[in-house]
Each structure stands twice: as C-alpha cells, then as structure tokens.
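Technical note accompanying the year-one report. For the benefit of new consortium partners, we illustrate the data format agreed upon in the data management plan: each record pairs a sequence with a structure-token string. No post-processing was applied to the example shown here.
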Amino acid sequence: MSNFLPIFKREFKSYFNSPIAYVVIALFLLVSGFFFYNIYSFFNYVVFSMGMQRGAGFMEQINTAEMVCRPLYSNVVIVILLMVPLLTMRLLAEEKKLGTIEILLTYPVRDIEAVLGKFAACLAVYCVMLAGTLLYPLMLSVYSGVEWGPVLSCYLGLLLVGSAFISTGLLVSSLTENQIIAGVGTFAVLLLFWLLGASERLVSPELGAILKHLSLLEHFEQFAKGIIDTRDILYYLNFTFIALFLTLRSLDSGKWRG
C-alpha cells in the first residue's frame, strides 16, 4: 500500500485546486444553516409559548436533542444526498475521459491503492464539509444547552452514511467517462436505496422487512434518535465494502475489455 498516501494527497489537493470543493462546501453549509436557523427559531417559539403557559417547570422538560438535533440532522443527511454525487462524479470518470486511467492503474500502482486513495480523499473532503456544521451544536450549547451524546451519535451516523454514499459514487464513476452521467447515476442509486423502506407497505411483510433493512434511511434514523446499534454500523460498513469491491471488479473488467 505504498502508493496509497501519494494518491490520497494528489486527490485531496485536486479538490481544492478547482472550484468544486469550495462550491459544494459553501452550498452545503448555506442550506444546512438555513435548516438550523428555521428549526432553532421554531424551537425558541415553542419554548417561549409553552413557558408562558406552563411556567418555569416546563424548561426542565425541554429535550434539545429531540426538538432541534434530530430534525436538523435528518434534514442535513438529505442535503448530503444531493451534495455527495457532486464530489464523487469526477473520481474515475475524469480519469477515463482524459485517458489517464490506464497510467494510474499500471504497475507499480495496484487497483486497490488507487480506489482506496480516491475514496479516502473524498471522505476527507466530506469530513471538512461536516466540520462546518459543528458550529450548530456549539451555538446551541451556549444559548440553550445540548445533550452531546445524541449529537455525537448523529455525527457517527453522518460519517457512516457519507462513507456509503462516497463508495457508491466511486462505483458509478468507474462505469462511465461522463461526469454528468456519473453524478446523476449516483444520485439515482442512492435515492433508490434511500426510499426502499417506504415500499414495505406495498409488498408482503417478508419482502417489506427485507426492503426496510436495505434502506439507507432506516438505519440513519436510529443514529438521529441517539441510538448507536452495532447492526446499523455493520450495515453501513458492509454497504461501503461491497461498493468498493464492485468498483475494483469494474476496473478489472475494464482492463480485459481494453
């Protein structure tokens, strides 16, 4: 894995050598900030209104995690669904279009080093993007107090969701040299897995249970509630592993076709 770090550094720098990372991060923070402002404003309105009716005792019953953090991060993850394809669409599609994919994957660079290097670089940019949202719970802790356990649970969920999203984007990007197709294709695949749980009522109970288990949304909901379940962690790790494995197989089959 000696080539992993150079590939990681090259890919990470390339994000910030072009406008894409700045645009995506700025857009993400703008939209997530809009959600935070509206949710927190509604929270203050409810606290003020109910406090006037029920008195000071009501303040002790306030659950900021349930009233602010859970709806906030449930909305943030939807924004991530829209933003990640913009980060992943160029990862391998651009290499194919420029004809540099063959150079990248020739000896001594192994396929797995290239795939993991690109995956880790995109995940690092994603973490930079997420870091900006830490301002929201920090502001909440100053003005209203915050339960950090559920907040950390949400961020663990967002990290795992991002990992699954990015690996999927890398897979789709390996199938085409058109970045637009890679971006739209990634969004379509993620949206399909996102909405699987909503189909459970339309099919048999047995099939419904399977669809619910496969849904990306269902597993994140537990983290949003402040519940860390190893089954949800394993789901996202397995999802990521399978997508990366299929990416390697896609690159390998491309060599044979070439």
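Partners are asked to follow this layout when depositing records. The mean pLDDT is 84.
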